[in-house]
């Protein structure tokens, strides 16, 4: 599953029926938890805990250790639900997340840069000058139900699009 790029795709990680149930719950009247620069985060509906459980059952948390330079198996810290917003972005600005974290983003709608999904900078977790010559932007597309596991120290860019909906599991 792991790749030197700093992320790995898991097609069909979540069943279509759970994805549809989650979308219906999110379209309901969920309370906004917070707004970030790129997305609105909502209170987590209970169906998203079922998505978490299905992901763990289908993939196993031990598979996440290959993204860290340490053992033991990372612990699930949080489940987040969000919808990307359209933004005016600086195409040169890069972002990062938690260095010691692993993220599992599960697409509830198709996700791509056109609807807000991040543009990863492959191999950017290695900040050495020699490695920077191998960095490249990666615009990936996820179908609803697909997941991407990515390192928190991987850099990424915000595209201008919005409306993509996702669940993210955060491991530390």
From TrEMBL:
Source species, domain of life: Eukaryota
The name of this protein is: Uncharacterized protein
Name the species this protein comes from. Lepidopterella palustris CBS 459.81
């Amino acid at each position: 599953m792991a790749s030197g790029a700093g992320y790995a795709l898991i097609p069909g990680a979540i069943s279509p029926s759970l994805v549809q149930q989650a979308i219906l719950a999110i379209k309901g009247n969920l309370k906004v938890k917070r707004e970030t620069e790129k997305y609105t985060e909502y209170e987590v509906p209970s169906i998203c805990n079922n998505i978490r459980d299905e992901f763990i059952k289908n993939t196993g948390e031990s598979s996440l250790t290959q993204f860290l330079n340490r053992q033991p198996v990372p612990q699930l810290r949080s489940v987040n639900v969000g919808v990307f917003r359209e933004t005016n972005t600086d195409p040169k600005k890069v972002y990062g997340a938690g260095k010691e974290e692993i993220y599992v983003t599960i697409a509830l709608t198709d996700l791509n840069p056109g609807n807000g999904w991040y543009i990863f900078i492959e191999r950017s977790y290695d900040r050495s000058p020699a490695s920077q010559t191998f960095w490249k932007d990666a615009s990936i597309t996820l179908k609803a139900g697909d997941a991407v596991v990515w390192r928190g120290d991987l850099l990424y860019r915000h595209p201008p699009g919005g409306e993509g909906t996702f669940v993210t599991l955060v491991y530390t």
